[in-house]
Specification:
Layout (H helix, E strand, L loop, with lengths): L8 H8 L2 H15 L4 H4 L2 H10 L3 H8 L7
Helix pairs in contact: 2-5
């Protein structure tokens, strides 16, 4: 039985960087606007590209759900 799972360097970096907070903020924005589940819309690798580019969580949420515009 395996006690430990192998973790890639990228996964370790994403867990211990601000990526987790970024992902949580995007999820919260999508939940607030009714935009759907982030995990169904975008995988972590593509979301990490937005994070590396310095895009805001609001921008990412809006780009994932263009019909969820604020009034």
């Amino acid at each position: 039985m395996k006690l430990f799972h192998k973790t890639s360097a990228l996964s370790f970096y994403m867990i211990h960087s601000g990526f987790k907070a970024f992902k949580d903020r995007v999820k919260a924005e999508l939940d607030a606007t009714g935009g759907g589940n982030l995990d169904d819309l975008l995988d972590d690798d593509r979301l990490h590209t937005f994070y590396r580019n310095g895009d805001s969580p609001d921008y990412v949420a809006a780009s994932l759900c263009p019909s969820c515009e604020e009034d």
